[in-house]
């Protein structure tokens, strides 16, 4: 379908039918991205004030926290109250999940789970309004590079949740009515790369979106087999979910011959920032408020997020788990949105397959994160390629369920590597002091 027709008609209709106002949010964000700083701050304050009053009236968890501060009336909920609230930790979400849900949204919640870098799955809820602003902020960042809603797009994605939804009807709808295709990021073998190259050659997307590690390997394959893509090159490559390292960016820019953008966000926190053509990460300040907890002398510290649009399950002063540094310097691109100067994010490792092919760890993580009552996990691959999945859970998983998980993991990896499961009281951090979901001795030996 013609891109202009999707952008102007089909996409807004599709979002309305899904109960989302993404198109309206997108146009709102385009109108506010160059506001004078004082006007942008005033907008944030208005949205925060409304959210605080909502939390007082409808969210027991925050009502108790407000009362602990001595607040007795909604009139006392000034924006300064936000800084007085204790930080919400992931353990708070695990322990108080039912009390963090707004009583106005109990029948309108969308359940999500995330593994994160700690190996501790987290269940949380979102709502259509939060999703609308989240998706609109992503679209806005792409528009800075000339990619409009309706532009042909390929997502190189690895979550079994997303991939398993690609039944025949949805594939047809996304391809022919939204100009979107999803291809798997889980198999990096040359056979899979050749298959993906054929799709890209035929579909010729303007935007390619996915994990930087996987897109980097796609660029390496294109460098070795340029003819396989039939002269196609994207107009923008956008990276997400992992740290984008300089050597990856440079190789992709050299091979893809297009700008390499970067976005920063999470399922729970929302869409936080997107890179502009001048190379700065602009915060979606109309959607989130970001703070730095206990900054060091250089200004870097733990990121604290307040999502201004999450009314179903509000997150006020939520510790996301990354270290960041904010900047107050203006950007040459002309946007007035504040800037993230530095993000010390996370990098997903790889498993090594029996033929030496690389397998994205999302093949296993996506299955593990949906295991009920799982407190923590770590995947360990030895040099002999065998895999041990270490689990922390109150009760062992029945053998039949383990066998089913093993079968699904083999299917996702397209490999029958030996997989064993072990149960532990706790999983200590790695030698670096960080908690990691994957340790691959086989991958480390290659690099």
Q: Reading side by side through the largest sheet, how are the strands ordered? A: 4-3-5-6-7-8-9-13-12-11-10
Write down the CATH class of the domain at 350-446: Alpha Beta
Helix content: 25-40%
Which second-level CATH architecture of the domain at 350-446 applies?
Answer: 2-Layer Sandwich
In round numbers, the mean pLDDT is 90
CATH topology of the domain at 350-446: GMP Synthetase, Chain A, domain 3
> CA-to-CA gap between the ends?
44 Å
* Cα-atom radius of gyration: 22 Å
The structural class is: alpha/beta
**CATH homologous superfamily caption of the domain at 350-446:** ANL, C-terminal domain
Beta-strand residue percentage: 15-25%
Tell me the overall shape.
globular
Number of helices: 15
State the major sheet.
11 strands, mixed
Low-pLDDT runs: none
Q: List how many beta strands DSSP finds.
A: 19
Task: Write up this protein.
The structure is a single chain. With 447 residues, the chain is α/β, with parallel strands linked by helices. It has a domain at 350-446: GMP Synthetase, Chain A, domain 3 (2-Layer Sandwich), CATH 3.30.300.30. Helices cover 37% and strands 23% of the residues. The chain contains 15 helices and 19 strands. It has helices spanning 3-17, 22-32, 37-58, 60-68, 80-84, 90-96, 128-143, 160-164, 168-177, 190-203, 212-224, 246-256, 362-368, 399-413, 441-446, and strands spanning 110-114, 122-126, 153-157, 180-184, 207-210, 236-239, 260-266, 270-275, 281-283, 288-293, 300-307, 318-327, 339-344, 350-352, 358-360, 374-381, 387-393, 419-424, 438-440. The strands form four sheets. It has an eleven-stranded mixed beta sheet with strand order 4-3-5-6-7-8-9-13-12-11-10, with helices on both faces. A four-stranded mixed beta sheet has the order 18-17-16-19. It has a two-stranded antiparallel ribbon with strand order 1-2. Strand 17, helix 14 and strand 18 (419-424) form a beta-alpha-beta unit. The longest helix is centred in the N-terminal third of the chain and has 22 residues, at 37-58. The two termini are 44 Å apart.
